[in-house]
Amino acid sequence: MDNGIVTDAHLRTSDPAVFAAGDVANAFHPKLGRHLRVEHWANALHQPRTAA
Ligand SMILES: Cc1cc2nc3c(=O)[nH]c(=O)nc-3n(C[C@H](O)[C@H](O)[C@H](O)COP(=O)(O)OP(=O)(O)OC[C@H]3O[C@@H](n4cnc5c(N)ncnc54)[C@H](O)[C@@H]3O)c2cc1C
Fold this sequence. Notes:
- By secondary structure, this protein is an alpha+beta fold.
- The chain is 21% helix and 23% strand.
- It contains one helix and three strands, in the order βββα.
- Strands 1-2-3 form a three-stranded mixed sheet, with no helix packed on it.
């Protein structure tokens, strides 16, 4: 946990069987080179596809 559930760029948490998406996810953003947590409906809609 750090400003949300910390994930890699594939939305994977420190447990390889657990993913986080949407408002709760503080995901690594490869283009920005840092973690980013977003509270927006489009992010919540598209992040699960990335995780899958
Ligand atoms: C007042 C308000 C206005 C907003 N306006 C905008 C806007 O204009 N544009 C925009 O893009 N975004 C807006 N947002 C943000 C947008 O609503 C969120 O980014 C989006 O809903 C996030 O979706 P989510 O699925 O990640 O989380 P949520 O929609 O919060 O869904 C999480 C779900 O998990 C459930 N839950 C929680 N705990 C548990 C548990 N222990 N077990 C099982 N279920 C649980 C909750 O009941 C909820 O249904 C607004 C948010 C608020 C509060």
